[in-house]
Write a structure and sequence with these properties.
With 152 residues, the protein is of the alpha/beta class. It folds into 2 domains: 1-76, Rossmann fold (3-Layer(aba) Sandwich); 82-151, Regulator of K+ conductance, C-terminal domain (Alpha-Beta Plaits), CATH 3.30.70.1450. It is 34% helix and 21% strand. It has a 3-stranded parallel beta sheet with strand order 1-2-3. Strand 1, helix 1 (16-29) and strand 2 form a beta-alpha-beta unit. The longest helix has 14 residues, at 16-29.
């Protein structure tokens, strides 16, 4: 089976070098396929983007944020939390920082990266100001549904 006709490929390989190679091959075979890759090592994130991944999630970062939220009482235990990944827009957030709009408090979603004008911006902070066209969030399944309700 090939990648032709597939909308999204998720690379969740144990080895970041294998994931980088897979991203290169997928990008060559199907340039329009969206590639979401998992990185075991944060140092490999940039290589995965250069190899053609559209989005890269570093497990250490995601798990660390979940653990921090659990420790300070802002969420469930990291092992009990179902994390989902969603691409969504929320034009209603444009012009305010994420902190000012209280995205996490209102939805339970942590914005970890944003796609803007074809470029991925990572390392999103509470001071980040979204544009109406920005996309990409991560959070619990319930939080993603609440985030998508902010579109208006």
């Amino acid at each position: 089976m090939g990648v032709e006709g597939v909308g999204t490929v998720v690379l969740a390989l144990a080895d970041d070098t294998d994931a980088t190679f897979a991203a290169l091959v997928i990008r060559e075979l199907a340039p329009d396929v969206e590639v979401l890759a998992r990185a075991s090592e944060t140092e490999k994130i940039r290589k995965l983007y250069r190899a053609g991944a559209d989005y890269v999630l570093a497990l250490a970062t995601v798990y660390g944020r979940m653990a921090a939220a659990a420790i300070v009482g802002e969420g469930d235990s990291p092992t009990d939390t179902q994390v989902g990944v969603a691409r969504a827009s929320a034009p209603g957030l444009a012009g305010e920082t994420l902190a000012e709009s209280a995205v996490r408090e209102r939805t339970g979603v942590t914005v970890i990266a944003v796609e803007r004008n074809g470029e991925v911006i990572a390392g999103i902070t509470p001071g980040f100001v979204p544009d109406a066209e920005d996309t990409f969030v991560v959070g619990t399944e319930e939080g993603i549904a609440r985030f998508e309700a902010l579109k208006a």
